[in-house]
Amino acid sequence: MAQRITAQQAAEMVTSGMWLDYGASLGQPDVFDIALAARKDELRSVKIRSCLTVRPRAVLEADPLGEHFHWVNLHFSGYDRRKHDAGIVNYLPVNLGEIPDYYRRFIEPVDIVVIKTCPMDENGFFNYSAATLWHQAVIDRARVVIVEESSGLPYVLGGQTGVHVSQVHYIIEGNANPAAELPNPPPSDVDRAVAHLIAGEIQDGDCLQIGIGGMPNAVCSLLSESSVRDLGVHTEMLTDGIMDLYRAGLITGARKQLDVGKIVTTFALGSRYLYEGINRNPDFHFHPVDYTNLPQNIMQNDNMVSINNTTQMDLQGQAASESDGFRHISGTGGQLQFVRGAYASKGGKSFICLASTYEKNGVRRSRIVPSLTTGNIVTTPRSDIMYVATEYGLTNLKGKSVAERAKALIAIAHPDFREELEREAYANGQIPKGFF
To answer: Are 240 and 274 in contact (CB under 8 A)?
Structure first.
């Protein structure tokens, strides 16, 4: 039977060399984290697996040299990125939808898992709130399961949205702080230009997956002003932009084949407006990430539309969306799985969007390049890329040869870089002489 203990008592269970799991996003514990950090000098080589950190973590702040705690992360937030730059965070490469299977098949059972949840409900469940993800898979094999109750989290509905008290060993009282919010900056002119091209491709009854970032959210803003109707949603991440479409009455899910009438997701991250909208709302169904992200599930909805960002693309169509050379900045996430799931969907489309340029050290550079920056990681291979959009146009790479792809991508690059890109493409043999 689950026992109620203090955060300090829970932290006392940790010994040097243990593997801990903090879960992901809104599910990361707070009071346990503070209590564990207080024991820093007593511990060595405590390894903590987590993902998408939304608040500073006490164990990392207390151990800036990484002498006591080792943080292994499955997808970086801005905070995780900074700690990676400091040398105390390491990335674990994953397709997000496969993570439950990793815990079942490849990762040894963790010594202690600590997940922040809603307080126990009337049926004996601790709701995972807006972070269903892979938490149940971790808990199913963990040696010790601890939940940190927090009344500040929204309560969500769906499938496998909580752990039953019969699976819990210890309960600790958390704080009542509101769920962490993700700032949602207004879209730039470039975001709006790209979004306008993509929004023009979306039709009544399409089923949407919206990735993180300004451009995908700008698509939502434009759609909310359009005449499109009966949209569906089957996505990994729920955003403020999707909530805007829902509030506007544009999302009904009536034409979906899977989960008709429901907005399906595995986690939400945004503003209080978003959290209030999902709280006990039966229109929103949260599921484990291997339900939302596996291509064989995604493809079951016709006219699936996947919209995601990248940071660099070469002239063959390889999308590098998670690193800047050897510097890791985010993660593979669900991008590749949704690109493949949307393509396999009847009438489906996938869009990879990017601004044509960026500025680094005061120098403007092209995001479309002859070859990827040394060390850059390919997130989506050239063979999977369908539509690519910049503020200068939209092109479909499916069915195009290497030379045709190079020509098509040069045409949507910034005009200031097109001549140089074409010259290098010919010099590298990407466009054979006399081919066109």
So the answer is: yes
Helix or strand holding residue 59 (H, E)? helix 58-61
- CATH superfamily for 189-427 is Acetyl-CoA hydrolase/transferase C-terminal domain (3.40.1080.20)
- 189-427: same fold as 3-173? yes
Phi/psi of residue 50, nearest 5 degrees? -160, -170
User: Following DSSP, what letter does each residue of 312-328 receive, concatenated?
Assistant: EEETT--EE-SEETTEE
Domain extents for the chain?
3-173, 189-427
The verdict on domain 3-173 having CATH code 3.40.1080.10 is yes
Q: Could you say which residues of the chain have pLDDT below 70?
A: 435-436
Digit-coded pLDDT (tens) for 78-125: 999 999 999 999 999 999 999 999 999 999 999 999 999 999 999 999
| Of 236, 322, 391, 422, catalytic | 236
Tell me how far apart the alpha carbons of residues 325 and 416 are, in angstroms, rounded to a whole number.
Answer: 23
First to last CA, the chain: 73
pTM comes to: 0.96
- Under DSSP, the state recorded for 110 is P
Q: Is 236 a catalytic residue?
A: yes
pLDDT tens-digit map of 340-359? 999 999 999 999 999 999 99
Q: How many residues does the chain have?
A: 436
